[in-house]
């Protein structure tokens, strides 16, 4: 009781205080700059320690880590390894490992495109491009070679916050590349890394509901504390069991994590036009810092860290244990679906007339609180669906009427359906479709602002057509997180507040393609497709969770005017570079050299 009283009394002091100071050892700092120095051309590098290097920890050192984390350290095995006689170890974990297991191999083959199965695997990445296409579960024969490719060498299946702390401390002290892996969803390869120690946070499944938030900040409504490992649909199912059923801003995808990369990168979703991005909902985080300290971060405690965690980049400032976000009573909702494809017309110009009519009205949809998910290919527009939260069928019909009037006037054939649901949860489970894993692609994309759509919709649509005709698959999200939601002070790109539509461009290229083929695919994504999108939407921006690793001026494109403060905070919170994810604050000091393998600081 006394302790509680003291804590309550000390709160105003915290409010005046700055972030708590972290302690980094001078020896560790010096070591990271001198342990493993390499030269490539005229550039000098201080690299992380890799299998085969003198500074790579001995087996006995790994065993000590294992003992401190309750035996939860494993040698990392690519999911396809059980289909091969052995995994080629290449000096990582003490020799080649026999891996063949026909039963396990059959299980992998059966589940290879199942997202949930892959997210539950210790290290599997949903985008095989970022594993170097290694160790396919469909080898010609088990005697073929399975290598780790860009997968890590060891993995910690963390069960407690102490395990997270011990793993971070180990990676820091031993100068090992640390990769935090929650679901393996990352489109941009940030939950894989050659020769790394993988910290898997997927077991953190605790969820606590708060009827009326009484913690830091002004919010007095409902809230929920979500463990790092919780995924979208899993959270929705729990939200729907509350009384009354609750709603919150999650991603559209059922298996994306909530508290990992999603919210740290911003996080858009079907309710974002009504309530803002996921990062706008955050009330408090529990994290482990690069120095191994377990801290809260909220409006009162470590407020600068709190600001940075709200959209400043995945795996950049700390490892997240849990996040508390706002919840809202769930509302009746309506949906409309729309298809224009080769069943309706094979006339390319008629098809694009329809697509353009659909996308040109983006401002109208978001200004009415709507979200639209669509897929765009040559002769295939699949809008599944338009979401009208807090709308009846009659209300959503009214909003989309100008579109259907235009399609009819221009004689564009289509099919469409209008649906009504008692809650958004019912809509979400009935209408959103599952996606598949095991894909090979490079992504890019662009946020179009309301200004871009108002003055240049024709050019934006032409750029999207160019993208599709150059081989991109567009995954579109018409979303306006700044149209109705209150403005929150956080690290997301301020342009998100003006957004009307955000498109991912996904360009297929095999993970085991030659380096020259990969470079050519990347050139098309950045300099043909990306260039057209940037030119047509000069007011726009890019989204760090679903963007191009080679985005020119990525600091400005991903964070705009928030970048300088994020860079200062990165240097304060992680001066050693314990956390790393490409194109996040501070990574301009680093390169991945030797064909995508060694992570090194430029010195
Ligand atoms: C099919 C699909 C659908 C998607 N839908 C949406 C969507 O609707 N809206 C949207 O905004 N985005 C969406 N995304 C993108 C998604 O936001 C990012 O891929 C995000 O990074 C996934 O986070 P994760 O934790 O699930 O994945 P992971 O791949 O496990 O991790 C992604 C990044 O976050 C870091 N990270 C993971 N856990 C932690 C942790 N506990 N602490 C610190 N860092 C951590 C990782 O190191 C990595 O850098 C989608 C992606 C896919 C593949
Ligand atoms: C860690 O310890 C557990 C339990 O003793 C053991 O099963 C596992 O193989 C060990 N991991 C490594 C990498 O040795
Ligand atoms: C990645 O793939 C390329 C081409 O297939 C190969 O040359 C290279 O050795 C691979 N790298 C790793 C780390 O597996
Ligand atoms: C076109 O869309 C309709 C309605 O969604 C669907 O039934 C049909 O299979 C689609 N045709 C093609 C070729 O995809
Ligand atoms: C939902 O609609 C009702 C009636 O139009 C309105 O009063 C209410 O504010 C809306 N709720 C939200 C969250 O927009
Ligand atoms: C790439 O992998 C696929 C199977 O995953 C295989 O069929 C193909 O031959 C491989 N290509 C190269 C160049 O290794
Ligand atoms: C509109 O798009 C065209 C074509 O990309 C571009 O050249 C022009 O600058 C854009 N205009 C505005 C006002 O955004």
CATH architecture classification of the largest domain: 3-Layer(aba) Sandwich
Whole-number average pLDDT?
95
Distinct small molecules bound, one entry per kind: flavin-adenine dinucleotide, 2-acetamido-2-deoxy-beta-D-glucopyranose
- Helix content percent band: 25-40%
Parts with pLDDT < 50 across at least 5 consecutive residues: 1-15
Number of distinct beta strands:
24
Secondary-structure-derived class: alpha+beta
Query: What Rg, in angstroms, do the CA atoms define?
Result: 24 Å
InterPro entries: BBE (IPR012951), FAD-bd_PCMH (IPR016166), FAD-bd_PCMH-like_sf (IPR036318), FAD-bd_PCMH_sub2 (IPR016169), FAD-linked_Oxidoreductases_BP (IPR050432), Oxid_FAD_bind_N (IPR006094)
Protein name: FAD binding domain-containing protein
Signal peptide: 1-17
Domain FAD-binding PCMH-type: 147-330
Which features would summarize this protein structure in a list?
Uridine Diphospho-n-acetylenolpyruvylglucosamine Reductase, domain 3, 4 domains, Oxid_FAD_bind_N, binds 2-acetamido-2-deoxy-beta-D-glucopyranose, alpha+beta, 5-stranded antiparallel sheet, oxidoreductase activity, Uridine Diphospho-n-acetylenolpyruvylglucosamine Reductase, domain 2, FAD-bd_PCMH, 7-stranded antiparallel sheet, signal, 603 residues, globular, disordered N terminus, FAD binding
